[in-house]
Each structure stands twice: as C-alpha cells, then as structure tokens.
TrEMBL record, chain C:
Source organism, top-level taxon: Bacteria
InterPro entries: ABC_thiamin-permease_prd
Residues that span the membrane, as ranges: 12-36, 42-61, 114-134, 146-168
Gene: ykoE
Stretch forming the signal peptide: none
Keyword Transmembrane helix listed: yes
Pfam families registered for this protein in UniProt: ABC_cobalt
Membrane recorded as keyword: yes
Keywords attached to this entry: Membrane, Transmembrane, Transmembrane helix
Protein name: Putative HMP/thiamine permease protein YkoE
Length: 476, 250, 193
C-alpha cells in the first residue's frame, strides 16, 4: 500500500449556526495515487469535506471541528493559510465563478504569483501547463467568452500549474451537458495517468464517470459513512417509466416561427403542434436556439415571422427564483389575482405547497422553488409549461421529485416543453422529442423512435439513454 | 505621440487628474477652467487615439449638465451686487454673477473632459494592477474588485433574465421614477442573493489557489514608471500652472 | 484592518457594487437629462442611492471599515465599468464612505438599528456635500439655495440610503442567503429594531 496522505479519525464538523453535525465521526485514510470519490445526496456534507481538505474551512465559516484530521502526516490546523493549497489543488463546480482575471494567461499568472514563483519562471510554467492540458490555443482568450466545458479545463489547468500532489474535484461536471462532461472526464483521465495525481472527488451523479474511480466512500444525509468499497460503474438514476396520458386535442400550434435578435437569425421556420397532456422534450447542441424557442413561445422575444396559438404559456426558468415577487409562497401563487382562493387552495394541495405556504419563496429548497414557480404559472391558467434545463445539477432525490411534478401535472392535462440534455430523464417522461440544430428544426419525433437512433442523437450533441442500465436493474 | 496618454502609468495619471481637480476648484474666474478645459482637449487630440464619436456621445449629458449649472448659478447666485449686464423678466444679471456662472459651467466641462480622458485612455485592469504596484493597494481589495469586473457580463445577463421573468408574471418596471425606485427591490433581492453565493464561490476558488491577500513578491505583468511619465507629469503641471495663473496675464 | 477580513466578505462587497453599478446605470441615465433642465437640484433628491451600498454592506458584515471599503470599491467598479465620471467617482466614493463609516464609528459598531442606518445615510450626505461644496463651487450659489440642496441631500441620504438600505438588507436576510454573516448571527432586538 502507498503512503497515507490524508487521515481522518472521528472527525466531526458543525456550522456555528447549526445544532446538528454536518459530518459525523468520519474515519478513513487516503493513500497516494488513489482515485477516491465521495458520493451521497445533496446536503450530506460532501463539499464541506473538500473544504476541510483544502483548508477553506473551518476559518471561512467559523466551523467547529473535533477529532483528528491529518494532511501529509501533520495536523491540518498546523498549516498556515495558503500553505497547503499548492499541494492540494481544487476544481469547483461552477464554471462561472472560479476566475478573477480576464484572460487564461493572466489567470494562470495570478496563481503563480500567489505561490511567489519568481517572475522569470512564470512564462515557462504557463507554457508548459498549457501544452500539458492541450489548451495552448486558448492562452490569450478571454475566459468569460469560453464555453462551460472549456472553463472547467482552464480551472483544472490553474490547479495543475501549481504542480499539486492531490487534485480535489467538487462536482466538476454538474454544470456541463453529458457529452461535454464525458469529454472532460476522458481528458482528466489522461492527465491523471501522465501526472500520477491522487484524486479526491465528490459527486452525486456517478454514471458518466464510468470506471474513472478506484474507490467509493458513501455518505448518508447525516454525514456519516455508510460504505467504503471498490468503485464500480454506476447506472443512471432509475426513474419510473410513465404511461402517456396525452389526449388527442391540439393545444399548442406553432406555424413558421422565426426569431431575430440584433439582425442575427436565432430561429427560423419552426412548425409543430402539441396535444393536451403531452410531454415534449426539446433537445439540440448548445447555442442551437433551444432557449430562444422557449423565450419566443412565452412572449419574451417577439416573433419575426409565423404564429403561435395556445391558451396560455408559462415558463419555469432554470433558476425558478427569478420569477418570484412576493415574500411568502402563498402570496406568490396569488400574485396575479386570477385564481380564486378555492382554486389556489386546491393547487397548493396538489403541489404539496401547503406546509411551506408562509415560508419565504427564496428560502425553500430548489425542488420546492420549482413547485412554487409551477404553481404560480398554473394559478395564472397557463396550461402549457416550458422548463429550461430542469435536471442540471440535481441529485437522485431531486430528479424523482421533478419527475413526479411533471408526471402528475401531465396527468392533469398540462402540456410540457422541456429543454434538456439528459436523455435518461427524457426517456422516462417524453411522449415526443423536438430536435433543433442551428436555429432550425430537424423534426419532431415520437419519443421511442429517437432513443435507438444513435446517429441522430450524436448529430445533436446527445448521448443515447443507457437503456441497458434500465434493463439490468429491472432483472436484478 | 498618439500613444502618450495611453502609455502613461495609470496611477500617476489618476493622481494628476485628482490634483488638477483640487487645484482648479479654488478658482472662480471663468478663464482658469476654460484654459484648462481647452488644454485637456488639445492633449487628447494630439496625444491619444480616441473614438470621437463615442466621446461626443458621453460628453453630451455633461454639456447639458453644464448648461443646467450655468442658469442655476445665474438665478441662484450668492452675490447679487454690481453692474447689471443683462436682464430679462425680473432677473437682473450682474457681470460678477455671469463670471461666476461661466466659471462653474467651464469647471463642469473641464472636469468632465478630464474624466473622459482618463476613462478613454486607461485600461481598467491595468489601472487596478498599477494601484497595487505603485500605490500599494491591498491585493485583497484589488483582486476583490477584479472579480467584480469579471462578473459584470454574468450579472447583466442575470438582470435581464430577472426582468424578463418578472414581465412574464405581469410585474412591469414602473415608468414613474419613485415607484421604479421602490420596485427595484424585486430585482435587487434575487440579484444580491446570487451575488452572496457567487462571492463565496469566487473567494473559495481564489483561496484554493493559494491566495492569502498578502503582498506579492513578483508580478507577471510589471507596471513601471518610465521616462514618458516624467514628461507627461511636466506637461500636466505646466498646463495646470498656466491655467491657475491665467488671471494675472489677462 | 484588512487582516480580520475574510476574502469572501471583500468579494461580496465587490459583487454588491456590481449589482448597484448596474442599477445606477439605469438611474443616472434618467437623471442626466433632468440635470439640464432643472440644474444640480435634479440629483439631490435621489443622491441617497449612491450611499446605499455602504449601508447594506456594513449592516451585513458589521466590521469596522465595511462602509468606507464597500463605497470605495463600488466607485472603483464604476471606473472599471467605463463610467465616464470615473476618477471623480473614486474620490467622492471614498468621501461618502467615510461619512457613513463615521456614523457607525460614533456608535462603536455596536448598533445597527434603523436609527443608526439613517444616521449613516445622513453622514454620507454631509460628507459628500462638504466635498461637493468645494469641488463644484457651491460657494457661488445663494446660501438659501445651498441650504435647500443640503436639506434635500440629507433627507435623501436618510430615506433612500438609511431606510432603503434597512429594507433591502432585511429583505435579503429573509431569503436565508446570508447564513454565516454577522447580520444572521445577531438575533437579538438590535437587528430588527
């Protein structure tokens, strides 16, 4: 066995404002060269664990820690601020909030300046790490103009320029679409082989990682270890199959839709219809016009040509809180004054919002926020609902909650248009799939015709759903 | 020649701008700010590459402001004794009043031109880097400000999305200024809540890369004080002295 | 002074400054046109909006320096955003921040109730007025007109920055996103007086 680099003995951690522990009696060792993943549901303290290793906690949150935590054979608290960070580097989850300088080169230089690298050596180190990571072409690019996947690679390059021994990964793919995430993982895999890094990751959706990890430590909701084993490939979250409750009655009719913005054509020639209770998945590469389609349908963008016929179209953005205007959930639903109080009561009952009726809409969980936003739309009699990337960054429990929300509403006759890259999620719900590319419609297909059409999916930057996984689990 | 103002050390340029403003503020004759204004304009014409169309667009509101200031100073002047040079309705304008009014209006023009000169010839990131290197600004503050700068496009987009979402719910931005001010809360709260989240993430990302806020021992991009800066300082001071002593020559 | 500051608090001030920078853009747009018609009075009634960021940041972070640092950073951000008034804003930002800071210092950084926040708004107004008196040459104006400007500015500072700042920081506190900041920890009367 290789040298032990991290050693946890009965480590407990709690935030000063909390009564209960975030991490409970953790005891384990991490050895050099291991590829460990910490798995568990959202809120189980996985990120806290990462922040204890790179010494962001306990200082940054004034957290209370007990037990013994050793890093490279020395007590964690003996390290001065910043001392450990070049040995233990981190890549975080949000590609938009990891940078402080305009260009890739300047960001790398910022990192080297932090480490007091002499100026003469900076240029060379930057050139080397860019060559190693295959990012040389991006050297002078403005970071904010890069795609999410490229930003994550730049973040990793910034970590690697410090020549670390350990790479911490805090859900690094949760903001990436599956194809981009896969590419990122393969890229990381190559780097790990070349550099012989120790990898310590936290992740709640492991299916895309295949056999990247060698060991998996599972945490439960209370932050205790419930499993420490050899890692195996994971299947995607298994969602219940749904019998369609679509009614043959056209509620949405789009004819020859075109949208322009600042003289640029975003969408052109889109024509399709949707039935009452139909769940339609809208998919296509990034920048193909999916979001523009949603915005045009609900009237945020004006149409350049064509027409939309529908009773009332509602929109649930990726951040549902953008819709919120009031101080309680109850008043949020009642905002427009369209629905009667009996109707509101019934709606809150069905959406399970009664228990949070008096809570502040910003303070509830993400899944609850989405239910509040859905409720607000339905209270305004908007019976065609648009959802933008609702599965992004969601753990298994949240996916089940989302699945139930959509499925139950569709049973009640609500029509859905859901933009997503998640084909497993799509397969479990969709009646139909609308594929878009370069602002044009490839076609609207019955859902089952799409899943095995690997070429068609690949053309639209999508991975086929892991149907094999579903089968294997149902036989198990 | 056309690069001189762009090449100047940003901190030095800032200090000179501040110094000029404080000096000019002591003068209430029209000549001093007028000469200074023309001087700054000439500097900009000959020593910078400025998009004059954009410049005029930015200058327009200031010119309007200067006009507003002109008539306010005439109507609400402190000193109303002296020879009347002009009168209309019940207002009587004395020579002294007119002089002060012109002086203050030129002052607005001079300061605005000075500010625009700085804004048009200074790279924002270099300015912050220079504040750190020349004026010993704390890296914690300097990089804190730079993070904010990086977030500008993200937050502008967020602002737009929230506005669109609110419009969808039938909550329009009010036309009436006071209502608009009160209605801002609805946009501000989600924006600020997002800012709290992003602030923590960004700060963590920086600290995870070894940033402690302590002084740096070496900079990748060194911003220096050079000969051109000495020359430009001389030019600025000359202009300043000429303007301040203008009254004695004429 | 900066030693005791967490980086996330500094970055928070910076990002708040960006949010208000975007808001200011919406406002200053309107007020410049007015300025031509009704002169410097156009700005006075809404001057308080320039002070609000220092009061919100101080109310959230509650450390000496929060007011002056946040207002200065807000001004620096304005410069970075290419605000045409750029370098002038940096100076007036520091002065305004000092005004609010003085009010908090007077109360020993112990109380953050509405009265203190309004006092801080008034502090910013007074400091910025003295600075403006000098830089913009208010001395040339009729004293009663100057008095009117001063009164308007102080009222605006107390109402928009003081009450508005309280209103917004309470609104933000209610969303639950300020966990881990001083404002969340003070559950006693002071915070919501």
């Amino acid at each position: 066995m290789h040298e032990t680099i991290f050693s946890f003995r009965n480590v407990r951690f709690r935030f000063p404002d909390d009564e209960q522990l975030t991490l409970t009696d953790l005891s384990f060792d991490i050895h050099r060269g291991e590829r460990v993943v910490i798995s568990g549901p959202s809120g189980c303290g996985k990120s806290t664990l990462v922040y204890l290793l790179n010494r962001l906690y306990p200082f940054n949150c004034d957290g209370i820690i007990s037990g013994s935590l050793q890093l490279f054979g020395k007590d964690a608290e003996e390290y001065a601020p910043g001392e450990i960070n070049h040995r233990i580097a981190t890549v975080f989850q949000d590609p938009d909030s990891q940078f402080c300088m305009p260009t890739v080169e300047e960001e790398l230089a910022f990192t080297l300046e932090n480490l007091h690298v002499p100026r003469e050596m900076m240029k060379q180190k930057i050139t080397e790490v860019l060559a190693l990571t295959g990012l040389s072409a991006l050297r002078h690019e403005v970071i904010q103009s890069l795609s999410g996947g490229m930003k994550q690679r730049v973040a990793a390059a910034c970590a690697l320029v410090m020549e670390p021994e350990v790479l911490l990964l805090d859900e690094p793919i949760s903001h990436l679409d599956p194809v981009t995430a896969k590419e990122f993982i393969l890229w990381l895999d190559r780097l790990q082989h070349e550099l012989d890094l120790t990898i310590f990751a936290v992740e709640h959706r492991l299916d895309l990682w295949d056999s990247f990890f060698s060991r998996e430590i599972q945490l439960d909701r209370s932050g205790s270890i419930i499993g420490d084993k050899l890692a195996t490939a994971h299947f995607p979250v298994l969602l219940p199959e749904r019998a369609s409750t679509m009614v043959p009655e056209t509620v949405l009719k789009v004819n020859g839709m075109a949208v322009k913005s600042h003289g640029k054509e975003l969408l052109s020639g889109l024509s399709f219809t949707a039935n009452r209770g139909e769940i339609m998945v809208v998919a296509g590469p990034n920048g193909s016009g999916k979001s523009s389609l949603l915005k045009a349908l609900c009237g945020i963008y004006a149409l350049d040509a064509g027409s939309i016929q529908a009773p009332g179209i509602g929109f649930v953005p990726q951040s549902p809180e953008y819709l919120f205007l009031e101080k309680t959930v109850g008043r949020e639903l009642a905002f427009s004054g369209i629905a009667s109080s009996a109707q509101l009561n019934d709606l809150m009952e069905r959406l399970r919002l009664k228990e949070i009726e008096n809570a502040h809409p910003f303070s509830v969980s993400h899944g609850q926020k989405r239910r509040v936003a859905t409720g607000a739309m339905l209270a305004d009699r908007r019976t065609v609902l648009l959802m933008d990337e609702p599965t992004s960054g969601q753990d298994a429990a949240a996916l089940h909650e989302l699945h139930r929300l959509i499925s139950e509403r569709a049973d009640e006759g609500v029509t859905f248009l859901i933009v997503t890259h998640d084909m497993e999620f799509a397969e479990s719900l969709a009646d139909s799939v609308l594929l878009i590319k370069d602002g044009k419609m490839t076609g609207k297909y019955p859902a089952q015709d799409v899943w095995n059409h690997a070429e068609l999916l690949a053309e639209h930057h999508l991975l086929p759903p892991k149907g094999a996984g579903r089968l294997a689990e149902s036989f198990a | 020649m056309r690069n001189l103002l762009h090449d100047m050390n940003p901190s030095l340029k800032f200090v000179l701008v501040a110094l000029s403003m404080f000096a000019i503020a002591f003068f209430f004759n029209p000549l001093t700010p007028f000469i200074f204004w023309i001087g700054i304009l000439l500097l900009q014409v000959f020593m910078s590459k400025v998009n004059w169309k954009a410049w005029s667009l930015f200058m327009l509101p200031f010119a309007l402001g200067a006009f507003g200031y002109l008539w306010t100073t005439i109507v609400f002047a402190a000193d109303t004794n002296g020879d009347v040079v002009w009168s209309f309705l019940e207002f009587q304008v004395t020579a002294e009043q007119l002089e002060t009014a012109l002086s203050l209006a030129f002052r607005v023009m001079a300061f605005s031109t000075l500010s625009l000169m700085f804004a048009f010839t200074t790279d924002p990131v270099k300015f912050i880097m220079s504040l750190m290197q020349q004026l010993k600004l704390s890296p914690k503050l300097a990089y804190g400000v730079l993070v904010g700068y990086q977030f500008l496009p993200v937050m502008k987009d967020q602002f737009q999305q929230i506005q669109q979402a609110h419009r969808l719910r039938g909550a329009e931005l009010e036309k009436n200024a006071l209502r608009r001010l009160l209605g801002m809360r609805r946009i501000l709260i989600p924006m600020l809540a997002g800012a709290v989240r992003n602030a923590e993430r960004s700060a963590f990302a920086m600290e995870a890369r070894g940033f402690t806020g302590e002084a740096r021992s070496d900079y990748f991009e060194v911003i220096k004080l050079r000969k051109v800066d000495a020359a430009m300082t001389a030019v600025f001071l000359l202009l300043l002295i000429a303007s301040c002593s203008a009254e004695y020559w004429f | 002074m900066l030693k005791s500051w967490k980086l996330k608090e500094v970055v928070l001030m910076s990002l708040f400054a960006v949010v208000f920078g975007i808001v200011y853009l919406v406002f200053v747009h309107v007020s410049n046109i007015w300025a031509a018609v009704i002169g410097p009075l156009a700005y006075e009634w809404m001057f308080g909006i320039w002070f609000i960021v220092s009061i919100i940041c101080m109310n959230i972070i509650r450390k000496p320096g929060a007011a002056v640092l946040s207002e200065s950073m807000a001004a620096a951000i304005e410069v970075l955003l290419g605000n045409a008034v750029g370098p002038r804003l940096l100076l007036s930002g520091i002065v305004q921040g000092l005004g609010a800071e003085a009010a908090f210092a007077l109360t020993g950084y112990k109380h953050f109730n509405l009265a203190v926040l309004m006092l801080a708004g008034a502090g910013s107004a007074v400091f910025s007025f003295v600075y403006g008196y000098f830089i913009s040459g208010y001395a040339a104006l009729d004293p009663s007109f100057v008095a009117l400007m001063f009164t308007l500015r102080v009222i605006s500072g107390m109402a928009i920055a003081g009450i508005g700042g309280k209103f917004i920081s309470d609104g933000l506190l209610a969303t639950g996103s300020l966990r881990g900041y001083a404002i969340s920890r003070s559950t006693k009367g002071d915070a919501r007086a």
